[in-house]
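Sequence in, structure out.
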Amino acid sequence: MKPLLFVFFACAMLGSCAQRQAVKIPAGSEKPLAHEAVAYFAEGCFWHSEIVFQSLVGVRDAVSGYAGGKVKSPDYETVCTGITGHAETVQVFYDPTVISYKTLVDAFFASMDPTQLNRQGNDAGTQYRSAAFYQNEQEKQVVEAAIKKLTDEKKYSGKIVTQVVPFTNFYPAEAYHQEYILNHPNQGYVANVSIPDFIEFKNTFKGNFKP
């Protein structure tokens, strides 16, 4: 087994989520309100996921964290090794009277490549897998319907490998991961990967974006 220190640095340099301030980056508040619903999605780097969902009208915050694993209260270093089973996940607080769960699911699929198994781009490992964590049968049906629609439309040449799994627990990531892109506009990964991906999402997704 590789020493933990080596694995950590490999994760940080090669698989880490990593802006040139070329676009306004939405920020959340990290505090749920009584009228809000909550959704959970994993689509690779949670830095990227934060700004995708926070850019949509009706979403007040997306908190970076970990879900889908078997270890309680995981931290970034151990999640990065893949041994905890967790995926980098966002906890999305939204107003269901303004934006539907279906729209969130559509944004989820529009902001990643769901045919990549245990990776998104250069971010490789089970912690970067694509997963929708449903909390009830209705959410499950919405996600499965979206997958069927994309499959029937032959949008991708490969098979969609997004996991559709029941939600169990969510653990917020360390404070330095929250609003990372907003707070680190010149970080290399952010400038060269995260922001270009976000701009492409905004240019192609027919959603209601915040000004």
